[in-house]
Write a structure and sequence with these properties.
241 residues, alpha/beta, five-stranded mixed beta barrel, 3 helices, globular
Length: 241
C-alpha cells in the first residue's frame, strides 16, 4: 500500500466562486459562509481554475496572516473525483520529504540535501535542491516544477510562456557534464500517466528541454496522487518528447 509522503491538516470543503487579482480565491464553504482564500499559484492556472468546482481550503490560526484560508485543492472530476493540487508552495516541501526518504532511485547515492542554493554564472539564481554524496560523486542540481495542466492522461508544462523556466533550463545545462542537472516535474494530479513539454504554450521552453535532454539533462516526471487526506507518490510518468 502506498504511504503518504505528506498529510494535509484538516481541510474545509467548499465551492469555488471566483479567482481574482491572481492571489485571491472566493470560496463558499459548506456552512454557507463565503471566505477569501489565498491563492499561492500566480500563474494562469490553465484548465484548473473552474468556478463552481468543489475545492478544499486550509485554515491557519496565525494572527499575523492577512488571510486565514489557503486554497489547496480543486476537484475536476465528473463521474469520480480528480483532485488537483493548486498550492504551489507545497511541491517543494513534499519533494524535500521524498528526497530525505530516498524515494527516487534514479538519483543514486547522496547523503546531503540542501535547499535554495545559489548557482549560475552570477550566483544570482537559486536551485531548489542540491544533492551531495561523497567526494567522487557529481553534485546533483535539482529543479522542481509544479505541473497541473493536462490533455487527457498527458501532463504538460508549462501552461504559459515562462522566461524564468527557460532560464532555469539554460542554467542547468551550463552545469553539465561536471555536475548532474535534473528537472523534476511534480505532476500534481493522479490521472496523468505521461508527460510532455507544453509546446503550444511555450515553444522555446520545449526546444530547450529537448536540447537539454540531448546534452544529458535528466528529467523526472513524478506522478502524485493528491486528495484531501494527503499526497502519495505514484512513480514516474512516461516521458514523451
Amino acid at each position: 500500500m502506498m504511504k503518504f509522503v505528506y498529510k494535509y491538516p484538516p481541510l474545509l470543503s467548499g465551492i469555488l466562486i471566483r479567482r481574482y487579482k491572481r492571489f485571491f480565491a472566493e470560496v463558499e464553504l459548506e456552512s454557507g459562509e463565503v471566505v477569501t482564500a489565498h491563492c499561492a499559484n500566480t500563474g494562469p492556472m490553465t484548465g484548473v481554475c473552474v468556478p463552481g468546482a468543489r475545492v478544499c481550503v486550509s485554515c491557519s490560526d496565525n494572527p499575523k496572516r492577512k488571510l486565514a484560508y489557503t486554497w489547496e485543492l480543486i476537484d475536476l472530476g465528473k463521474s469520480q473525483p480528480v483532485w488537483v493540487g493548486v498550492n504551489t508552495g507545497l511541491p517543494n516541501r513534499v519533494i524535500k520529504l521524498a528526497l530525505e526518504e530516498k524515494f527516487f532511485p534514479e538519483l543514486g547515492f547522496y547523503s546531503q540535501v540542501k535547499g535554495e542554493v545559489p548557482y549560475g554564472v552570477d550566483k544570482k539564481s537559486r536551485v531548489d535542491f542540491l544533492l551531495l554524496g561523497n567526494d567522487v560523486d557529481r553534485p546533483i542540481y535539482l529543479e522542481v516544477k509544479n505541473t497541473t495542466l493536462s490533455e487527457g492522461n498527458l501532463a504538460l508544462f508549462p501552461d504559459t510562456v515562462t522566461e524564468r523556466g527557460q532560464k532555469h533550463l539554460r542554467e542547468l545545462m551550463a552545469l553539465l557534464p561536471h555536475s548532474r542537472g535534473v528537472m523534476l516535474y511534480f505532476i500534481n494530479r493522479g490521472d496523468c500517466t505521461e508527460f510532455s513539454p507544453g509546446d503550444a504554450f511555450d515553444r522555446v521552453y520545449g526546444e530547450l528541454l529537448r536540447e537539454g535532454i540531448k546534452r544529458g539533462l535528466e528529467v523526472l516526471p513524478c506522478r502524485f496522487d493528491v486528495s484531501p487526506e494527503g499526497v502519495k507518490f505514484l512513480g514516474l510518468a512516461r516521458l514523451v518528447v
